[in-house]
Specification:
The chain is of the alpha+beta class. Helix content is 43%, strand content 21%. The chain folds into two domains: 199 residues, Ribosomal Protein S5, domain 2; 166 residues, 2-Layer Sandwich (Alpha-Beta Plaits), CATH 3.30.70.890. The protein contains eleven helices and 13 strands. Strand 7 and strand 8 form a beta hairpin. The longest helix is centred in the C-terminal third of the chain and has 25 residues. Bound molecules: alpha-D-galactopyranose (GLA). Alpha-D-galactopyranose binds next to helix 5.
């Protein structure tokens, strides 16, 4: 992919720039907990975005999306918002840096990626992190990694319209090969957990059903959580217990109750999974993953027919753990599969899924990799 970008950059701009990359992410457990101040447990993967960039001495950005074969040109003031969806991410990152006092100027850039779009693997965070990391280096801004992650997150909030949490950008920037990261999304304290479950494989099955987070069911989930937190007089649902929730049940809607019940359970599940991992107890890890799927499907209602179907196939095959990964509404299931079950499970998942939906899902083995970096 790097070669492809370099060749394209040369073709477009007749020169060479610096090359940066940032990955997408998986998340073992802890979904929709980040914006509730809770814990998440992501890791960066070996798929992501690569961008070549060269300062051009103007105040204009000239950008190519190699994959979409599209070009955009825009300035750096708030009025210069580009029309193309993909360009808004680059523009947003620039604006968020400028709002924080960073001095940046125009550049030429081309980017491409191999993290599947809309699969719940955070292609957009990979794009934001690539540019936040790169511009920080190229303009020597001295912004720390936490703030780089927040720049990506604010880009989603202010220029894309998704009120996301910090997990995706954090994982993309802080990723470390071979380790998952347990992140406390309230304090931003984090700890790397080496993850190499002997005798198991971690595999993603992509339903190829697309989710639409903008304008959106995602933001509505967040609003439900915030309403319940306000009712309970806590800053975040992370601080609430099921007993507290029962206490206000008559005063909130059934829907808000279900959303909060899921989140409170999920915050605890991340901690349980960390304990189980430290004890090498993968059966418990897997069981918690199934519990998360149930909660996301029945209480948080962010699953879909295709995801539930793949989760059922995993269960039937005796797969250790399986659940919808990421924001939901489509995308992938993440599966913790014993080595000896792997072939049977993948074979059955492909065949049954095709029989039901008319096409096969996609499969990605998980390789836990490093975060944002400069390649050349
Ligand atoms: C999306 C958001 C994240 C997080 C997940 C769900 O990926 O960008 O902040 O909320 O959904 O866990």
């Amino acid at each position: 992919m790097q070669q492809k970008i370099r060749a394209k950059f040369q073709e477009y701009f007749k020169t060479e720039g610096s090359v940066f990359a940032s990955p997408g992410r998986i998340n073992l457990i802890g979904e929709h907990t980040d914006y509730n101040g809770g814990f998440v447990f992501p890791g960066a993967i070996d798929k992501g975005m690569i961008a070549e960039i060269k300062l051009n001495g103007t105040d204009k950005i000239r950008a190519y999306s190699v994959d979409l074969d599209d070009y955009a040109e825009f300035g750096l003031t708030e009025n210069d918002l580009p029309k193309a969806g993909w360009a808004k991410y680059i523009f947003g990152v620039c604006r968020e840096i400028i709002k924080r006092g960073g001095e940046i100027h125009g550049f030429d850039t081309a980017f491409a990626g191999d993290v599947p779009l809309g699969a719940g693997m955070s292609s957009s965070a990979a794009l934001e992190s690539t540019y936040a990391f790169a511009l920080n280096e190229l303009f020597q801004l001295g912004i720390d990694k936490f703030e780089l992650a927040k720049i990506g997150q604010s880009t989603e909030h202010n220029y894309v319209g998704v009120k996301c949490g910090i997990m995706d950008q954090f994982a993309s920037i802080f990723g470390k090969a071979g380790s998952l990261i347990r992140l406390d999304c309230r304090s931003l304290e984090y700890k790397y957990f080496p993850f190499n479950p002997k005798g198991y494989k971690l595999v993603l099955l992509d339903t190829l059903a697309k989710h639409e987070l903008v304008d959106s069911p995602y933001n509505k989930r967040r609003e439900s959580c915030e309403r319940v937190a306000a009712k309970l007089n806590v800053e975040f649902l992370r601080d609430a217990t099921l007993e507290m929730l029962e206490g206000v049940k008559p005063e909130i809607t059934e829907e808000d109750y279900m959303r909060a019940k899921y989140v409170i359970g999920e915050v605890q599940r991340v901690l349980d999974v960390c304990d189980a991992l430290e004890a090498g107890d993968y059966e418990t890890v897997g069981q918690k993953m199934y519990e998360t799927h149930y909660g996301m499907s029945k209480l948080y209602e962010v699953s879909c027919e295709e995801l539930d179907f793949l989760n059922d196939v995993a269960k039937e095959c005796g797969v250790t753990g399986s659940r919808v990964m990421g924001g939901g509404f489509g995308g992938c299931t993440i599966n913790l599969v014993k080595d000896e079950l792997y072939d049977v499970f993948i074979g059955k998942a492909f065949a049954d899924y095709k029989a039901k939906f008319g096409f096969e899902p996609k499969m990605y083995p998980v390789v836990i990799s490093d975060g944002s970096r400069q390649l050349a």
